[in-house]
Amino acid sequence: MDENTEFGDLFALPQDYDSDKESSVDTTKTTRFTTSRNQWAIDIVTLAKKHSLWGHEIWNASKVLADYLEDHNKDGDNNEQALIRNKSVLEFGAGGALPSLLCAKLGAKKVVVTDYPDIKLINCIKKSVEINNSGNVVDVTGYLWGRDSQELTSLNGGEQFDVVILSDLVFNHSEHKKLLASCKQVLKKGTGVALVFFTHHRPWLVDKDMDFFKVAESEEFGFTVEEVASEYVGPMFKEDPGDETIRGTVHGYTLRH
Ligand SMILES: C[S@@+](CC[C@H](N)C(=O)[O-])C[C@H]1O[C@@H](n2cnc3c(N)ncnc32)[C@H](O)[C@@H]1O
């Protein structure tokens, strides 16, 4: 049985999905998120109804990633630099875009936020940028993983990015190689770091989620992978099938090349 149909349409990309056919107007809601470290208040606009690509939720991975960004934004000993301050940041599959919106508050010099090129998703992110007064450093654009990334780097003065953010994307197994190809194109060689935070939403597919990192380390991509976080925060949806401890834990990894 197909992994995406085994439990209804959980995380399936509908076969007939066509963003052009969807209306550009939809009901939205605004959620105020207060970061747990420095208490930044961030207003996040999302679609009020379920979107078939899951960009309507603020996923646990993005909340744990927000903590990680705040915790690593200080200059440290041994010439360690703040992770975000004065750095360029790119986010893939941003949905609510919490990490990107926070990076603007944390002093990033440039933030490029991307999501699937569906005007409804992109308009929500643009609205969030506007109401958080972050338009001076943030650009928002549609981007399909695996496509040419020149438009993204051109928004950063033609340069690759210091930090690339992937929050809750590895469940999409068929897209691993495309996502990694995009990371490879946009991440600065040597000093750049990609932050990959996620939850195993389907405990019976943990190995398939983790294949992302095997492929990342393969000769084809040549990334160095390091585990940097693991935190139990509780499951997003209690009623979903499978072990709650697994579904409620967020994992964080870095990729470098
Ligand atoms: C589970 S949501 C995660 C949203 C957000 N990053 C978070 O952590 O709250 C997955 C996101 O990936 C995006 N996405 C799915 N397939 C994509 C593709 N092929 N190219 C670009 N974005 C895609 C969806 O639109 C959605 O915003």
UniProtKB/TrEMBL annotation:
In terms of superkingdom, the source organism counts as Eukaryota
Biological process GO terms, please?
A: methylation
In terms of InterPro entries, this protein maps to:
EFM7, Methyltransf_16, SAM-dependent_MTases_sf
Gene3D superfamilies in the cross-refs: Vaccinia Virus protein VP39
Which keywords has UniProt assigned to this entry?
Cytoplasm, Methyltransferase, S-adenosyl-L-methionine, Transferase
Instruction: Mention any Pfam family matching this sequence.
Output: Methyltransf_16
| Annotated GO CC locations | cytoplasm
Any GO MF annotation of the entry: methyltransferase activity
Full protein name: Protein N-methyltransferase nnt1
